[in-house]
């Protein structure tokens, strides 16, 4: 696979057009002031690209060796910056990335890249505002004075350095901070899922590497140097582990960052149990091998050799039983020690809880006299509230009675109006009947003309 075809097949390159890639490979350092948004997008793309290439181990391998599973010997969290990096990133038809050195300088300024030597030795967290190990002079003496010194040629502006001079200044190993954060988060999550006792929080550097080197990132094997960076980040930035020479301890909430003699004793027991497990497995393989050799010798009628193998198997079996007995004793001892250590932590929690409860109970508000005073005041307040409620209820009853009298008067007046309306309708109906009789129009049968006439005479006009 050629350099160009292998490189352009990777996600950062495969997802963009050739014209866009050509723009990203151009020198845009002078756009930092004239077009900051475009310059920022340019720097972000290169940051993501360098992180991906480094995490898959390609930068430390030859261009033709790009493959999904990188060598375990190459560092994934550390970027080696040197002029040859430009040649490795060359794309046919586009060329080499111009201005990559200036982009790396900007990534250092943003703390996306941190010099490895400073990262491993600094006692101050890289997240502290004043951490920058190289401390740019422009921020120390002030930009106006720095500009004046530039005009007098006492100092040189950043843009005045050639690309070769920039590369000479920045060559070295750099920690990829974003990758370190990602790996640290993954390790803490893995540790949280397996932690059950104090012993599960204790590791040697080797057992830590065995446990997490191939599991922190999918398809990635961390190198020994990556493990050093990871442990330093977890200890200084995250404050989740404490490292003492070859010993590593994950800290529980509120625990002091120290490794006690109890921790060391438990770790020694764990190491002894691990060694015995390895011995038992090895002896078991030898026992099985001796049995197979004896069987094969018997099939070939080689009885003396078969007998020797059976005797060897017997000795190995006796040794296996001894090792199994020792392993059982050590494992039971380890369980008891971890249980006792857990009891200590539980008692500390009990003690802390007791102190908290005592502090709460000692509050002046919980004294007996204060409680009686408060309850008496509450009872008096409730009594006053009941009196107010009774007074309001009595007032409502009085108001309601007045409204009842008024309602009766209104109802009587309403009934009178209804009767008057019915009387008027009856008169109108009788007038209509009389008019119909006068015109000779038949009317309703129930009443005779005589009856209607009599009623009509009785109606006052």
From TrEMBL:
<dbReference type="Pfam" id="PF03357">
    <property type="entry name" value="Snf7"/>
</dbReference>
<protein>
    <recommendedName>
        <fullName>Snf7-domain-containing protein</fullName>
    </recommendedName>
</protein>
<dbReference type="GO" id="GO:0006900">
    <property type="term" value="P:vesicle budding from membrane"/>
</dbReference>
<dbReference type="InterPro" id="IPR005024">
    <property type="entry name" value="Snf7_fam"/>
</dbReference>
<dbReference type="GO" id="GO:0005771">
    <property type="term" value="C:multivesicular body"/>
</dbReference>
<dbReference type="GO" id="GO:0009898">
    <property type="term" value="C:cytoplasmic side of plasma membrane"/>
</dbReference>
<dbReference type="GO" id="GO:0032511">
    <property type="term" value="P:late endosome to vacuole transport via multivesicular body sorting pathway"/>
</dbReference>
<dbReference type="GO" id="GO:0000815">
    <property type="term" value="C:ESCRT III complex"/>
</dbReference>
